[in-house]
């Protein structure tokens, strides 16, 4: 059988077999509605509260501070909508956020919000000083992501949290790529709201959570029943919530071993690409970087063609248009860190998960230089470039 190597774990991860096993009873005998008072209902309720405790422990929160949602996107929407509904006025965010934040800001602008988009440095880092300078008297929220989904840059969240705390402005962080990928501590980080999503750490798709610091009031996001303390109505997705909790528990338990192992893969791939292929640059900070992220711009070729050729060789990766596959617009993140359109188009993102090994890196390093060579030979732009010397 043809070799298949999945290297697109920032898009989504495989559900861990232990997590799938953990979820299975909720598709079978444990089918009660958690709001029911009888034994069936109580068993489902127990599973939800156990998951809440596991998610809370993963980010050093209290169980009562965790609200389950239908995705990371929903958690981001909720945080921004609520802050704007309550505080009005001005929102500070960054130019490298996920669309789950940026498109909400665009929507809120139509409803009267003013938004400041803090520019990152060339390494993708959003400086705490720049955040401080963007604050105004009427700022109702700062929303800066914990780690970037495209270039893997880890933001100085603790310093940004301190800036917000000093100014008395609530701080939301989109930790969808950071949860279970690095230590996240909402208390030490000074975070007031935090979004996470199970399918980025080997849990099921379509379930996430919003952490809301005790004492911070949020508006209900869904109206209806009394679920999630009346804040997010709708019968709970018990199986997925249980899977989220278990994936978080396992993810945190594994971190001391898995993260250093992933860093090794990452660094071997970065070094192998930079040393083995001419005209390649690394995007994002080399140091403040997720353990599983490699993002490079390979000059004189089209990222889309590169992805197709990799796919033909059994490798699943991603390019500069990230989650919006099908879109040919260059990534807003790569443009925000100063890349021109052509360079942004030639970018490749490789993201590791629990299943990847050194053999996957070796295989990619074997085929990538050949593919790049073939694509460049076919490219009129590369012809031009060589003629110009
Ligand atoms: N925020 C970030 C940083 C992401 O990477 C993603 C997904 O790619 C999301 C939010 C959206 O999460 P979900 O897929 O659970 O809606």
Tell me the distance between the termini.
43 Å
Largest sheet: 7 strands, mixed
The side-by-side strand order for the widest beta sheet comes to: 2-8-7-6-5-3-4
What's the pLDDT, averaged over the residues?
95
Bound molecules: pyridoxal-5'-phosphate
* Radius of gyration using CA atoms only: 22 Å
Provide tags for this entry:
binds pyridoxal-5'-phosphate; Aspartate Aminotransferase, domain 1; four-stranded antiparallel sheet; 13 helices; Aspartate Aminotransferase, domain 2; seven-stranded mixed sheet; alpha/beta; 389 residues; 14% strand
How is this structure best described in words?
- The longest helix is centred in the middle third of the chain and has 39 residues, at 238-276.
- The chain is of the alpha/beta class and 389 residues long.
- It has 2 domains: 5-13 and 255-388, Aspartate Aminotransferase, domain 1 (Alpha-Beta Complex); 17-251, Aspartate Aminotransferase, domain 2, CATH 3.40.640.10.
- The chain has helices at 17-23, 39-58, 72-87, 99-110, 128-134, 157-167, 186-189, 238-276, 303-312, 332-336, 341-345, 358-378, 380-388, and strands at 5-6, 66-69, 90-94, 114-118, 139-143, 171-174, 193-197, 208-212, 280-282, 293-298, 315-316, 318-319, 347-351.
- The radius of gyration is 22 Å and the shape is globular.
- α4 links the parallel β3 and β4 (114-118).
- The strands form 3 sheets. Strands 2-8-7-6-5-3-4 form a 7-stranded mixed β-sheet, with helices on both faces.
- α1 packs antiparallel against α8 (238-276), α3 runs parallel beside α4 and α9 packs across α12.
- It contains 13 helices and 13 strands.
- The structure holds pyridoxal-5'-phosphate (PLP).
- Residues 71-73, 76, 98, 100, 145, 149, 174, 176-177, 197, 208, 323 line the site of pyridoxal-5'-phosphate.
């Amino acid at each position: 059988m043809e070799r298949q190597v999945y290297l697109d774990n920032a898009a989504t991860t495989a559900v861990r077999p232990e997590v799938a096993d953990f979820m299975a009873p909720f598709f079978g005998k444990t089918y009660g509605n958690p709001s029911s008072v009888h034994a069936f209902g109580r068993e489902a309720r127990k599973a939800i509260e156990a998951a809440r405790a596991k998610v809370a422990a993963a980010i050093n929160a209290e169980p009562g501070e965790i609200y389950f949602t239908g995705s990371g996107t929903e958690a981001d929407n909720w945080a921004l909508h609520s802050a704007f509904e309550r505080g009005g006025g001005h929102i500070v965010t960054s130019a490298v956020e996920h669309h789950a934040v940026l498109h909400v800001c665009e929507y809120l602008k139509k409803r009267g919000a003013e938004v400041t988009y803090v520019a990152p440095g060339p390494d993708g880092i959003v400086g705490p000083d720049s955040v401080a300078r963007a604050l105004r008297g009427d700022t109702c929220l700062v929303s800066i992501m914990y780690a970037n989904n495209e270039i893997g840059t880890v933001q100085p969240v603790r310093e940004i949290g301190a800036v917000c705390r000093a100014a008395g402005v609530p701080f939301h962080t989109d930790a969808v790529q950071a949860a279970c990928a690095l230590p996240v501590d909402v208390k030490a980080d000074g975070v007031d709201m935090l979004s996470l999503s199970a399918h980025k750490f080997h849990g099921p798709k379509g379930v996430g959570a919003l952490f809301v610091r005790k004492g911070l009031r949020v508006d209900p996001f869904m109206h209806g029943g009394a679920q999630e303390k009346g804040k997010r109505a709708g019968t709970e997705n018990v199986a997925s919530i249980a899977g989220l909790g278990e994936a978080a528990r396992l993810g945190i338990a594994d971190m001391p071993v898995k993260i250093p192992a992933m860093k090794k893969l990452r660094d071997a791939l970065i070094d192998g690409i930079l040393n083995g292929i001419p005209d390649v640059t690394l995007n994002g900070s080399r140091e403040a970087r997720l353990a599983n992220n490699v993002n490079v711009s390979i000059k004189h070729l089209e990222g889309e063609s590169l992805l197709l050729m990799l796919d033909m060789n059994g490798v699943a990766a991603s390019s500069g248009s990230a989650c919006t596959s099908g879109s040919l617009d260059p990534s807003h993140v790569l443009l925000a860190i100063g890349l021109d359109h052509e360079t942004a188009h030639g970018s490749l993102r490789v993201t590791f998960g629990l299943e990847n090994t050194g053999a996957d890196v070796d295989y990619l390093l074997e085929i990538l230089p050949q593919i790049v060579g073939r694509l460049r030979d076919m490219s009129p732009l590369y012809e031009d470039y060589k003629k110009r010397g």
